Amino acid sequence: MSTDSAWQSLRDRCDGLDPDDVLVTPGDERVFAVERTAPDHVVVRFREGGERRLDRDQFASLAERVGDEPLALDDLPPGVGPYATVLSLAPQYVVDETERLRRVEADAEPTTSPFLRSQWAVRRPPEEVHDDALLVADVLERTDVTDREALSAEELVDLYVLLSDLQWGADDLRRDVGDDLLDHVGPGGDLHGTYGTVARARREYRQLRDEDEVLDALDDAGVPREWVLGVDEEKLDVVIATTDLEEDDVYDVDGRYYVQKTGVEGEAKRSHLQGLRNRLAELDEDEADELRDEIDDLEERIDDVLAAG
Description:
By secondary structure, the chain is α+β, with helices and mostly antiparallel strands. The protein contains ten helices and ten strands. Strand 3 and strand 4 (50-55) form a beta hairpin.
């Protein structure tokens, strides 16, 4: 940041976040949390991708750029998103109605960053995971997804949205269940269930020490500094966003199209779910017995496959 007081106010905002608070980056909405702050950086952890260090110098470059003119947030380079999100926590900056990050006067009315969310606001509760699973099961029962060329565009949209919602919610729930399982699985042991087996595993997360420490260690070991020095792509993104440097000056840009979910028709989902519940409630005893027989047959086939293996 440009001044010690501005940097300290940003650190104070980061340190004052609740444990359940998470942040999302503009546009692509990558979810991350602030782990800790230090005199010259902020450490964040992404839900996907692990820890990342955000340097004070990069915040200073972005703050200077925003001080000159508002920064449009609709198409930021990936490396800039976390900086813009964290900077929006500071009282000197707001996101206006045109989705631009801008600096405000010191006596301006305090605002809350639109990128600050409660963890539960970005995590699907278990009952919604159940409902999404039920909707996906219904689509798979009524549709031959192995012949997708025969499906209409609307059917493909529905399938894609439902699978996306289910994946998001199920992955959150999987992580929560995994955390609970750590209390049950001992080191080097396996835990068996009806559908599979889990074991305790260890993944190490690394964070680079301060640059001076790293360079001193290299010098002590007789390693030339130029062996490890190079262009930092994430810092380069901030430079592109804050200077006249163009992206295609330093990157070979290859555009690729993909499908992005931009909306969910919640009322339609609720209506169809109620219809499924009504159909299940209307099953007579013979239909229920038939369904149980089908399940028994399926279990027998699974047992036969497992025995053969």
